[in-house]
Amino acid sequence: MIKSENPGAVPASEQEEKISADLPEETPAQGCEELAAQVTELKERALRQAAELDNYKKRTEREKAEFFKRANEGLVKELLPVLDNLERALASAKEHTQSDPNLVQGVEMIHGELLKTLGRHGLEPVQAVGQAFDPELHEAMMQQEDPEQDENTVLAEAQKGYTYEGRLLRPAMVVVSRKPA
């Protein structure tokens, strides 16, 4: 008989029996169920990640569109004084009978094209004259007595107001009616 170098050592076959006794008995069916559960979990995780990616793409597209809309809003707002000056030039030219009709017609065409172009991009004038005063859209510059109009009706417009993409860009500056004292 061969002597063991380690007198207290347990033979290898006994060690294997101890290890296998510590492990739970696993049937082939249990192994398949665990694998199926793992596959299901991984599929669900993949679907969640695909949905998150899709949501991320949609959100970035919305943010990008909103950014460009707001960037255009700044440009449109800066063009409003140009539009106002064109309207003043037209009004002045129409008052003076000595004005060249071709020049007036040319300025009217430029004014019309500018309004159409800005309108295609979302600019709309605020309706004021004859409307009820709306503090959301109008800024009252003064009140004027008018027995023929209902109280708080817009009588005149000192400066046009505009909305851009449904949002107020500049309120209309108006004269509002009041009943005589």
Describe this structure in words.
- It comes from Desulfoferula mesophila.
- Pfam families: GrpE (PF01025).
- Residues 32-63 form a coiled coil.
- This protein is α+β, with helices and mostly antiparallel strands and 181 residues long.
- The chain folds into two domains: 32-121, Hemagglutinin Ectodomain, Chain B; 122-181, Head domain of nucleotide exchange factor GrpE (Nucleotide Exchange Factor Grpe, Chain A, domain 2, Roll), CATH 2.30.22.
- 55% of the residues lie in helices and 17% in strands.
- The protein has three helices and six strands; from the N terminus they run H-H-H-E-E-E-E-E-E.
- The protein has helices at 12-22, 28-95, 101-120; strands at 123-125, 138-145, 154-159, 162-164, 167-170, 172-178.
- Strands 1-4-5 form a three-stranded antiparallel beta sheet. A three-stranded mixed beta sheet has the order 2-6-3, with no helix packed on it.
- A hairpin with a 2-residue loop joins strand 4 and strand 5.
- The longest helix has 68 residues, at 28-95.
- The chain is elongated and about 120 Å long.
Topology-level CATH name of the largest domain: Hemagglutinin Ectodomain, Chain B
Strand order of the largest sheet: 1-4-5
Question: Which parts are unreliable, with pLDDT below 50 for 5 consecutive residues or more?
Answer: none
Overall pLDDT confidence: 84
Helical residues, percent: 40-55%
Major β-sheet, in short?
3 strands, antiparallel
